[in-house]
């Protein structure tokens, strides 16, 4: 089977043409500065080249693969904390992302379905971490925004005798559904609307549609569990006040 997108002159020329066409559309339609597309493309090439070199070395040994996952985990926590806009308290989101990731990756590895090899755990772990990070940051931000916007309702619930945790949970519980919706929709529409990256990657590498489908099902169902756990922990952290924003009571 012929490989797809083999590095070479043909690929380089096609990429230049695609970027040039994108820049031309920017210019003709006045979508913004023409340099946006070329600069984004150059950054993508540099970043992916660096990642490819790092992974080529890291995947050679299990310990270095685990180190890559640890770095990914740190980046995921940092990104989620930044998006949540909760100051230092956002460090608690480490628990959310950790809970979701461990709940999913541990049974995958213990069962032997995902072999304890760098070439397997890095891509699967990276996908799980990425999805968990997105759900966590979305859940935290939506919950905190809701508490800010509906602060009076929390006060009213407290005046009725609710515990502080319960009063907050009554207000933010629905935000969990919003945070989980992208992942649920992705699972519902897979194969009908989109072909996710894991499916395409395995299909191109192995040529087996059945193998690609099996890997994609594993990833999607793993994401459902990871995101559900992460969001559940996140709204609990917000409800108990561990993840919070400084909100003035006199507005």
UniProtKB/TrEMBL annotation:
<keyword id="KW-1133">Transmembrane helix</keyword>
<feature type="transmembrane region" description="Helical">
    <location>
        <begin position="190"/>
        <end position="211"/>
    </location>
</feature>
<comment type="similarity">
    <text>Belongs to the UPF0014 family.</text>
</comment>
<dbReference type="Pfam" id="PF03649">
    <property type="entry name" value="UPF0014"/>
</dbReference>
<feature type="transmembrane region" description="Helical">
    <location>
        <begin position="48"/>
        <end position="78"/>
    </location>
</feature>
<protein>
    <submittedName>
        <fullName>ABC transporter permease</fullName>
    </submittedName>
</protein>
<dbReference type="GO" id="GO:0005886">
    <property type="term" value="C:plasma membrane"/>
</dbReference>
<keyword id="KW-0812">Transmembrane</keyword>
<feature type="transmembrane region" description="Helical">
    <location>
        <begin position="90"/>
        <end position="110"/>
    </location>
</feature>
<keyword id="KW-0472">Membrane</keyword>
<dbReference type="InterPro" id="IPR005226">
    <property type="entry name" value="UPF0014_fam"/>
</dbReference>
<feature type="transmembrane region" description="Helical">
    <location>
        <begin position="217"/>
        <end position="239"/>
    </location>
</feature>
<feature type="transmembrane region" description="Helical">
    <location>
        <begin position="116"/>
        <end position="140"/>
    </location>
</feature>
């Amino acid at each position: 089977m012929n490989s797809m997108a083999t590095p070479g002159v043909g690929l380089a020329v096609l990429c230049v043409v695609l970027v040039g066409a994108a820049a031309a559309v920017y210019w003709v339609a006045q979508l913004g500065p023409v340099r946006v597309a070329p600069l984004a493309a150059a950054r993508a090439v540099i970043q992916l080249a660096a990642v490819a070199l790092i992974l080529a070395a890291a995947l050679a040994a299990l310990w270095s693969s685990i180190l890559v996952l640890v770095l990914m985990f740190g980046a995921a926590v940092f990104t989620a904390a930044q998006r949540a806009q909760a100051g230092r308290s956002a460090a608690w989101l480490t628990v959310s992302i950790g809970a979701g990731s461990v709940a999913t990756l541990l049974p995958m590895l213990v069962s032997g379905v995902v072999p304890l090899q760098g070439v397997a755990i890095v891509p699967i772990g990276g996908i799980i971490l990425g999805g968990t990070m997105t759900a966590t940051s979305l859940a935290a931000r939506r919950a905190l925004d809701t508490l800010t916007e509906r602060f009076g309702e929390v006060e009213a619930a407290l005046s009725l005798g609710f515990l502080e945790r319960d009063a907050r949970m009554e207000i933010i519980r629905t935000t969990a559904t919003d945070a989980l919706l992208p992942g649920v929709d992705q699972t519902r529409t897979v194969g009908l609307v989109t072909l996710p990256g894991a499916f395409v990657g395995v299909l191109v590498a192995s040529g087996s549609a059945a193998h690609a489908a099996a890997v994609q099902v594993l990833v999607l169902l793993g994401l459902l569990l990871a995101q559900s756990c992460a969001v559940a922990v996140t709204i609990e952290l917000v409800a108990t006040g561990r993840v919070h924003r400084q909100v003035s009571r006199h507005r």
